[in-house]
Design goal:
Elements lengths: L25 H15 L1 E2 L5 E2 L2 E9 L4 E9 L1 E6 L5 E9 L8 E8 L2 E8 L10 E8 L3 E10 L2 E4 L3 E11 L2 E4 L5 E7 L2 E4 L4 E8 L2 E4 L3 E9 L2 E5 L6 E7 L2 E5 L5 E7 L4 E4 L4 E5 L3 E6 L4 E9 L2 E5 L1
Parallel strand pairs: 4-8, 4-10, 5-9, 5-11, 10-12, 11-13, 12-14, 13-15, 14-16, 15-17, 16-18, 17-19, 18-20, 19-21, 20-26, 21-27, 22-26, 23-27
Antiparallel strand pairs: 1-2, 3-6, 6-9, 7-8, 22-25, 24-25
Length: 312
């Protein structure tokens, strides 16, 4: 008795036994794979298939005046102006089909006149990683930011008012204060620290990343250990330093600044570019001079890099 292939119109692959009789065809295997993916995926309202998980929730606290404080172990946090009468916290969690959305918890509570937002993480297994988390905090005009602290993720305050002396801080991520009213400090250990368009005195500090203060009413200081330090120095209210341990320093000085300026590098060049600074001492690596009455000291320094002093 001769053997007959189950699907004679499918040629046998090279090296295959022409007398074999497979119980599962290639079409069946492909069909099963598609069915498996569909079972593991979430479907949108259309025909598109989205592989992964996503959850969004919103909490609102009735608060027309007061403050907001954020303390997050994980996730990107953005505080911005809202169009409602209260503080609205929107949490978005997303991840792969294996992610455990419950491994990260976002909680909110009202303490007197302060809305407190906290993000905590629980241990997650190898096959159930933590999800990506975005926390958006929308605040009405009468609510100011007291502080934003993020352990792993970006910390951003954009367009909201801040309490005097507020900090926007991340340990592993960028720290950004932009378009805010009030004195503020942007601080991070691993990431870029930026204070931009601040209607107040601003500072920026990073351990590993760039530090920038730009278009602010005044500068309290700019510092980084590994990265570039950039400052537009419009005004000082005390002695200040723009410093990098390893990187370039770029300082643009306002014509009406009142400061004793010292610019120095341990390994690089100091360059004056229309800085309205009359040097009293000038070498390739050191410049000292005065703008105005020299009431405050402004020190521009780097260990390894160039220092550029220009006119704002």
């Amino acid at each position: 008795m001769s053997n007959q292939r189950a699907f004679p119109d499918d040629p046998a692959p090279p090296g295959a036994d022409p007398g074999s009789d497979p119980s599962v065809s290639r079409r069946a295997v492909l069909g099963g794979s598609v069915a498996l993916l569909a079972s593991l995926a979430g479907c949108t309202s259309g025909d598109a298939v989205v592989v992964g998980k996503r959850d969004e929730s919103t909490t609102t606290h009735d608060l027309s005046s007061g403050t907001v404080r954020v303390d997050a172990e994980s996730g990107d946090v953005t505080v911005r102006p809202g169009d409602s009468d209260g503080v609205q916290v929107t949490t978005t969690k997303s991840g792969s089909i294996f992610a455990s959305l419950d491994a990260t918890t976002v909680s909110t509570r009202l303490e007197d006149d302060t809305v407190v937002v906290e993000t905590t993480i629980e241990p997650a297994g190898w096959f159930s990683p933590h999800p990506d988390v975005d926390v958006d905090v929308d605040v009405p005009p009468g609510v100011a930011v007291e502080s934003v602290a993020v352990e792993n993720g970006d910390a951003v305050v954009d367009g909201a008012s801040v309490q005097s002396g507020a900090t926007v801080e991340s340990r592993n991520g960028d720290a950004v204060a932009r378009n805010v009213k009030g004195d503020v400090s942007a601080e991070t250990e691993n990431g870029d620290a930026t204070a931009e368009s601040v209607d107040g005195f601003a500072a920026a500090r990073s351990e590993n990343g760039d530090a920038v203060v730009r278009a602010c009413a005044g500068v309290d200081g700019v510092r980084t250990e590994n990265g570039d330090a950039t400052a537009e120095v419009t005004a000082l209210r005390g002695d200040a330093t723009v410093r990098s341990g390893n990187g370039d320093v770029d300082a643009a000085l306002a014509p009406d600044l009142d400061a004793r300026v010292i610019a120095e590098t341990g390994n690089g060049d100091v360059e004056l570019t229309d800085a309205l600074l009359s040097p009293e001492t000038e070498t390739e690596e050191y410049v000292e001079g005065t703008i105005g009455d020299g009431t405050h000291e402004l020190r521009l320094t780097t260990g390894n890099g160039d220092v550029t002093v220009s006119r704002l």
